[in-house]
Write a structure and sequence with these properties.
The protein has eleven helices and five strands; from the N terminus they run αβαβββααβααααααα. With 247 residues, it is an alpha+beta fold. A five-stranded mixed β-sheet has the order 3-4-2-1-5.
């Protein structure tokens, strides 16, 4: 089975991400689509396992196999958690709806470490751009501010909200290069400090609910195996009419 067929035939969840989901889209923004597919269980019985992720079949489309997606979400991967909380859901079957219902099980205090660690790495890249080119990549600076704000607010409230809401215009001003880099850096430093302060009072648990997520994954695999077995049985049981002979 071609990898893209796994996306076409076995997607359980699909959403729009990027600037459109963040509430930062402009007339020139792309539409980034992300999704989750459930590879049929029998494919894992082979030496050649199904892929953990697939690009396409459409442009700007990227999907993860369910197990890989859950594993990354349990580690509080920022991109994965935001995908799971997108306000622009395009498709969700029964498995996808159950995945969405599990969003809270993936959230934990790990958000602080992963979001801020990622932000620190991006900040160093922006500083390198300033030293090399005289200024940062302003779009990346905007998204770094958005990520730090998201980390702080998630730790404060226990809920991850993807859309920037009232922060849109100020963030777009950064993207247009209308805010001095020195001011942007102070903004980043303040957000990081506020995220640090929120950890001690966060309603989030120390760890994600691994048992609940694993139970969901096992049930999804078993259901997939049962469907495959039923399909195989039905195929074997069909006898062409022309082959039937009277006894």
């Amino acid at each position: 089975m071609p990898d893209t067929d796994l996306v076409r035939e076995h997607t359980v969840y699909a959403c729009v991400m990027g600037s459109r989901a963040f509430g930062l889209a402009t007339d020139t923004s792309d539409t980034d689509r992300r999704g989750v597919f459930l590879a049929p269980t029998p494919l894992f019985w082979r030496f050649d396992k199904p892929p953990t992720h697939v690009e396409g079949p459409a442009e700007e489309q990227f999907s993860w196999e369910l197990e890989r997606f859950c594993a990354l979400a349990l580690r509080a991967n920022p991109n994965i958690l935001e995908c799971l909380h997108s306000p622009l859901v395009e498709y969700a079957d029964a498995t996808g709806r159950e995945l969405l219902a599990l969003r809270g099980a993936f959230l934990s205090r790990r958000v602080h470490e992963t979001f801020t660690r990622y932000a620190l790495g991006q900040h160093k890249k922006l500083e390198a751009d300033v030293h090399t080119y005289g200024g940062p990549r302003w779009k990346h600076a905007m998204h770094l501010l958005r990520l730090l704000t998201s980390a702080r607010d998630t730790l404060r409230t226990g809920t991850l909200t993807v859309d920037v809401g009232e922060g849109r215009e100020r963030l777009l001003a950064v993207k247009r290069g209308e805010v001095p880099w020195s001011e942007v850096e102070l903004w980043m430093t303040r957000l990081a400090a506020e995220a640090d302060g929120a950890v001690a009072r966060t309603p989030l648990p120390a760890e994600p609910d691994l048992a609940r997520v694993e139970d969901f994954l096992v049930r999804a695999r078993r259901a997939s195996a049962a469907r495959s077995q039923a399909n195989d049985t039905a195929a074997v049981g069909v006898v062409p009419t022309q082959d039937v002979r009277p006894v």
